[in-house]
């Protein structure tokens, strides 16, 4: 009698809940990306009609970020103009012409973008792509934008 | 008798509570730190090379848009964004091969340029040359 009572005092079956929780855990562990590979301060302009950036894009494309004060970074690593020029030059010598993808903040003055483009044009890169937001997600980078 | 009862109790107790606590802590951490990325697009332009403009096909219609800090100028006439979109859509509807020369002033925000490029992408204009001034 006493035994029956004890087993009834915990009628909530834990097993399905633990299953679900583990599934969720594994999902979040796999999808999480702790290191920011791009500068989170950059707020892009909307461009719903542009070509989608996906993994069908050529692998050679070099992404450069220009923040609203005109500072350059690649993969969230800030650098000065000379370092950037060296990188572009080395890349150009290694693989030839490649498209340059500029992630420019919508507030960046064009003259700062121009400096970046001019450096590339000097070295023979004429194709420039500008990144824009095709579709916003709820918690995305531009959520704070009015 | 006493011994037997104790054995029974030990068999039944696999403590779930601490494990569930830890798993929930981890789960909440991952849910909170998850950040969904926006879906991005790219808008393409060609920078003028020293010779490319001279090589342009003379039959192509050339259109000139200047991007200013607070608006646009189409073929010499100041115009706002909505008007520009309407005009470019109109032009593209009978000649989508029109070449656009985009001039961008140094103090205009990058967003204005991207908006213009987006209008061009909407109308499938691909012949875009970007000049800075």
Summarize the structure.
The complex is a heterodimer of chains A (146) and B (133). With 146 residues, chain A is an alpha/beta fold. Chain A is built from 4 helices and 6 strands.
Explain this structure.
The complex is a heterodimer of chains A (146) and B (133). Chain A has a domain of 95 residues: Nucleotidyltransferase, domain 5, CATH 3.30.420. The longest helix of chain A has 17 residues. Chain A has 4 helices and 6 strands, in the order ααββββαβαβ. Chain A has a 5-stranded mixed sheet. Chain A is 36% helix and 18% strand. With 133 residues, chain B is an alpha/beta fold. Helices cover 41% and strands 25% of the residues of chain B. Chain B contains 4 helices and 6 strands, in the order ααββββαβαβ. Chain B has a 5-stranded mixed sheet with strand order 4-3-2-5-6. The termini of chain B are far apart. At the A-B interface, α2, β1, α4 and β6 of A face α2, β1 and α4 of B. β6 of chain A pairs antiparallel with β1 of chain B.
Record the SSE blueprint:
The complex is a heterodimer of chains A (146) and B (133).
Chain A lengths: L1 H7 L6 H17 L19 E2 L9 E5 L5 E3 L2 E3 L1 H15 L4 E5 L5 H13 L4 E9 L11
Parallel strand pairs in A: 2-5, 5-6
Antiparallel strand pairs in A: 2-3, 3-4
Chain B lengths: L1 H11 L4 H17 L5 E8 L15 E7 L2 E4 L2 E3 L1 H14 L4 E6 L5 H13 L5 E5 L1
Parallel strand pairs in B: 2-5, 5-6
Antiparallel strand pairs in B: 2-3, 3-4
Rg result of chain A: 24 Å
CATH topology of the domain at 51-145 in chain A: Nucleotidyltransferase, domain 5
Largest sheet of chain A: 5 strands, mixed
What is the H/E order of chain B? HHEEEEHEHE
Structural class by sheet pairing and helices of chain B: alpha/beta
The helix content of chain B, as a percent range, equals 40-55%
Q: Which second-level CATH architecture of the domain at 51-145 in chain A applies?
A: 2-Layer Sandwich
Q: What is the end-to-end distance of chain B?
A: 97 Å
The helix-and-strand class of chain A reads alpha/beta
β-strand number of chain B: 6
Q: Beta-strand percentage of chain A?
A: 15-25%
Low-confidence stretches of chain B: none
Strand order of the largest sheet of chain A: 4-3-2-5-6
Number of strands of chain A: 6
């Amino acid at each position: 009698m006493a035994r029956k009572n004890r087993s009834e005092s915990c009628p909530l079956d834990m097993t399905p809940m633990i299953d679900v929780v583990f599934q969720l855990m594994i999902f979040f562990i796999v999808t999480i990306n702790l290191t920011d590979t791009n500068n989170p301060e950059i707020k892009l302009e909307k461009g719903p009609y542009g070509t989608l950036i996906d993994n069908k894009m050529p692998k050679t494309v070099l992404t450069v970020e220009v923040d609203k004060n005109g500072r350059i970074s690649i993969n969230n690593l800030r650098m000065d103009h000379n370092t950037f020029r060296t990188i572009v030059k080395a890349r150009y010598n290694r693989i030839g012409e490649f498209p340059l993808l500029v992630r420019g903040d919508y507030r960046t003055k064009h003259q700062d973008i121009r400096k970046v483009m001019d450096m590339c044009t000097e070295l023979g890169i004429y194709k420039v792509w500008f990144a824009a937001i095709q579709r916003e997600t709820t918690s995305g980078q531009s959520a704070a934008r009015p | 008798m006493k011994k037997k009862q104790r054995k029974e109790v030990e068999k039944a107790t696999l403590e779930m509570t601490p494990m569930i606590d830890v798993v929930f802590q981890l789960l909440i951490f991952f849910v909170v730190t998850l950040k969904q990325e926006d879906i991005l697009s790219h808008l393409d332009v060609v920078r003028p090379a020293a010779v490319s403009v001279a090589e342009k096909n003379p039959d192509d219609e050339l259109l000139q848009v200047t991007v200013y800090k607070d608006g646009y100028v189409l073929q010499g006439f100041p115009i706002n964004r909505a008007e520009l979109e309407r005009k470019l859509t109109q032009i593209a509807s009978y000649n989508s091969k029109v070449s656009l020369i985009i001039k961008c002033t140094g103090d205009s925000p990058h967003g204005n340029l991207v908006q213009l490029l987006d209008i061009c992408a909407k109308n499938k204009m691909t012949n875009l040359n970007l000049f800075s001034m």
